[in-house]
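Shift notes (night). Ran Kynurenine 3-monooxygenase and related flavoprotein monooxygenases while the centrifuge was going.
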Amino acid sequence: MTSATSATAAPSSGGGRKDFNVAVVGGGIGGLTLAIGLHDRGVPVHIFESASKFAEIGAGIAIGPNAQNALQRLGLYESFLQFADFPSRNLFFQWRMGEGEEQRLLSETICKQYGMASIHRAELLDTFVKRMPTELCSFGKRLKDIQQPESAEGKVRITFEDGSTHDADLVIGCDGIHSRVRGALDRPTAGPSAVAGSDSLVWSGSWAYRGLIPRERFVAALGKEKGEFYADTAQMLLTKDSHVLIFPIHGGKTVNIVAFRTDRSRWPQRTPFPKGEAWIQETSKEELMRDFANYSSDVVKMVECIDKPSKWALHQVVPSLTSYINGRVIVAGDAAHGGVPHQGAMAGQAIEDALFLSNLLSHPRVKAQNLTQALGAYDRIRVPRANRVLESSLEAGDTYEFRGVAADDPAKLGEHLVERFDHIWDYDLDKEKQQMEEWLDANL
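Came back to this:
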């Protein structure tokens, strides 16, 4: 077996106050945020990314009050503010009927704290990259295998496709919903979803068509008055088995649009994903317009602005993992609880994980000799929280498409959507940290 030193330069480690070191596998938003949090708190850490550089695919994402609160505690909020867009009145979304020319307003959801922010994924990542020392990052490192230590004093060995290896006291998989690290979990403890890659993931039935539309083009398509209103005001437009969302990014210069169409041919069961099909597919403008022809003329004009359409199959970890830990290998972010984006909460949960693990691993009582035991706090506190957000996200998509709460009563649906997100946004991070302290006092 080739060593990391002989294959590439030996990874450096940040900090120095702790007597153990951490390897973070995956350099997306969750992995990078976690690595920064650990490094800043004196935990030796090295991050391994499979790509040739830090990069995010996708478009605009929402960052809720809970995630912004976590970013403040991680010291990353000022960097985030450089590119974040905040709507007026702390608006999350206006909820409207997608059919009917009047686009009937059902309700609107207001954030009570901070306000719901939107930002392009790549911009968010770029702001954080500057905070991570380059010598603590290795690229082109696609995970091949993980070996648990043979003794309590031993280290976890990770092997990469290029033949190099790295030994660490703790390995944290932040390698996304297709996580290879997830396969290192113990299935009897974590459940049937503890499988590497995509084989255990369940298709939600939904395809998402994404587009980034220059503001000028968007306004021209709808006309000045309507166009400017919708370009500035986050909207969720709902119909049976479909919904369309829009919100501004890039300081209002761009409109992010995502149009969802769901196959419910086997409802209430989830439709199996067609074997052999790609998760991301190029498609025709004709197919796109056919899928959304039932909407009002304004929404049709919005969707028509999407050039070179592609569609993304939305999958989820189902059933939810019952444990994120196996010895000194753990998963976080989408690797632990990846799913559909219907509450604008998935990135936020990765950020919350990063804050929790940064606080836990930097805690004065956590040392190499009790590291495995200390990780129990992560399972005890984060699994219920993150899994609730994950499972309610899938339910949210059903609700938006008149297959869930108040499916036959739009007025009641509007009332429900006003408060549906409180359990996500109002999460008490101070209480979570106190629970962690109490758990450590009782168990270490």
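The radius of gyration is 22 Å. The first helix runs from residue 4 to 7.
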